[in-house]
Amino acid sequence: MKVRDARSTPVRRRLAWAGPMLAALLLPATAWSTPAQADAPTSVIGVRQSQLDPGYWIARLEQPDRVILDREGIAAQNARMRAEDASIQDIAALPDPLPRGFVRAQVEKLSSPPARSLYDGQGKEVPPRTLANLQRELALDAIPASRPLQYGLVVHRAALRAFPTSLRVFSSPGDTDIDRFQESALFPGDAVAVLHESRDRQWLFVASERYSAWIEARHVALGKREEVLGYASRAPYIVVTGATVRTTYTPDEPRVSALQLDMGLRLPLRTGLDPSQAVNGQHPYASHVVDLPARRADGSLEFVPALVPRSADVADDYLPLTPANLVTQAFKFLGERYGWGHSYDARDCSGFVSEIYRSFGMLVPRNTRDQAVSPALDRIAFEPGDDAARRQAAVRGLQAGDLVYIPGHVMMAIGHEDGMAYMIHDTSGGGWRGADGSRVRAGLNGVSVTPLDPLLFNDNETYVDRMTSIQRVRPRTSP
Q1: Domain boundaries, the chain
Q2: Which residues form the NlpC/P60 domain (predicted)?
Q3: Which pLDDT belongs to residue 34?
Q4: What residues contact 21, with CB distance under 8 A and at least 6 apart?
Q5: Which residue stretches of the chain have pLDDT < 70?
Q6: CA atoms within 13 A on the CB side of 172
Q7: Which residues lie below 8 Å from residue 336, measured CB to CB, with a gap of 6+?
Q8: What angle do CA 98, 99, 102 make, to 5 degrees?
């Protein structure tokens, strides 16, 4: 059969063929998927592709734009959290000077000798001599009878550690995701009080509003009390509303170049600049010029301008606390790898939910154990003997943004479908029963959408069986 040269095709026929092809090329990527593909099941029980879109859940909300708490309500909630929750620290009220007994108690509360065998990244047991050296680095014998209280601002996303070391240790050989010395992280602009330093002076033991632990000294700039504690209230400002954004790369000021800024950070704007003058070698008109803390060579604090592109996911204020915004903010982390204690430049389950709420200007305790029992939230508590009917009724009543706790884990509710509650959560595991009744260990290891009901806590119990509490943010109607 003779093949016709395309050049001999009549113009009208060529345009009829090219029109749909050109239109298809101009469609957004999501339009290439057929309805069947968009709603195809995933390999995770009860989850279809369409359910990985925040819009799917927002469309199912009865009042997606209802304001749960306004600015005044959030301020009152934060005041309640600071007054009633023992895990929240007022670093402005610490004793000055610091007594030896107070400092020693704070360090020993965190840095107690490990009671079990630990393993390094190569699967070898950490020798007793290494652990003994860590105890020596605590320099408890060097704590003076009293020392002046110093304040500082964190200048770079930095790990908070149980001991003054970067050594990563694990509970079993080969299981190298959960570093048992990793506690949490602090972010640029977070205020700390310095309580102590390691023997080699490379680490500081600091207290922040939500956590006390060891941090590398190079990530903290020491300043006057007023400028450190006042940084968080400076205005005007922008708020990071993306999962993360980065300052613009600059060789002119490496201290604030390509700096990771995580969701909920409030960044004061640098004012009084000539808008026609370059900032760090770049014209600033297409950027927000923020004022970031930086560390001088002697460890002291200064503030330097940095650029955040106007294309970055930031806002000129905290977001309105609505069900739709809660779902939207949570889904910005979808697929991020799980990071125990904020390792891997990511976050864990409690960090995930606290940073979602931080983008609304709301204070939430750092750890799951503290969040689950916080008296400053509206808690529904469960005891081991509570019957299944009570638990199921509570699950059916979950609202978007509610926090559901099981031992060691927290999830955020996003909606209901097919008689099941659906959650978004940052999980290192995940499992359910397969078709043959055996337990499937999914290893989700990241921010995931799952139904709550089929998830297994162990071979015999579900997550619902092991719920310890549900925490809800809502206006306080009674004392």
Answers
A1: 49-69+321-472, 88-235, 237-315
A2: 320-474
A3: 56
A4: none
A5: 1-36, 476-479
A6: 1
A7: 243, 346, 347, 426, 446, 447
A8: 95
Cβ-based burial of 58 (10 A; exposed 0-12, middle 13-18, buried ≥19): buried
Residue 450 structure tokens = 């799952």
The single residue listed with the structure tokens 């909606």 is 415
AA letter at 115: A
Q: Specify whether the CB–CB gap between 103 and 195 falls below 8 A.
A: yes
- DSSP-assigned letter for residue 187: -
> Which residues does 365 contact at the CB level (< 8 Å), separation at least 6?
81, 85, 87, 88, 210, 350, 354, 371, 374
Prior bond of 188 cis (ω within 30°): no
Which H or E run contains 338? none
Residues 6+ apart with CB under 8 A from 284: 273, 275, 277, 278, 307
Instruction: Output the CA torsion 391→396→399→401 (10° steps).
Output: 50
Question: How far is residue 121 from each of residues 118, 125, 195, 300, measured CA to CA in Å?
Answer: 10, 10, 31, 35
Least Cα distance to 335 among 24, 5, 16, 54 occurs for 54
The CATH number of the structural domain formed by 237-315 is 2.30.30
Query: DSSP state, 37?
Result: H
Can you give the length of the chain in residues?
A: 479
Three-state DSSP string of 425-445:
EEECCCEEECCCCCEEECCCC
**Whole-angstrom distance, CA of residue 46 vs CA of residue 433:** 12
Chain centroid offset of residue 143 CA:
34
Cβ-count burial of 355 within 10 angstroms (0-12 exposed, 13-18 middle, 19+ buried)?
buried
CATH code of domain 49-69+321-472: 3.90.1720.10
Structure confidence at residue 475 (pLDDT): 77
* Tens digit of each residue's pLDDT (9 = 90 or more) over 237-281: 999 999 999 999 999 999 999 999 999 999 999 999 999 999 999
- 384: exposed, middle or buried (Cβ count in 10 Å: 0-12, 13-18, 19+): exposed
Q: Is 148 helix (H, G, I), strand (E, B) or coil?
A: coil
Instruction: Compute, in degrees rounded to 10, the torsion defined by CA atoms 49, 54, 56, 60.
Output: 140
Residue with tokens 């999830």: 411
Give 365-408 as a DSSP string: -SSHHHHHH-TTSEEEE--TT--HHHHHHHHHT--TT-EEEETT
- Return the pLDDT at 172: 95
**Backbone phi and psi for residue 418, each to the nearest 5 degrees, phi listed first:** 55, 40
Q: Which residue has the tokens 């960044």?
A: 267
**Separation CA 18–CA 39 (nearest Å):** 29
Distance separating the N- and C-terminal Cα atoms of the chain = 88
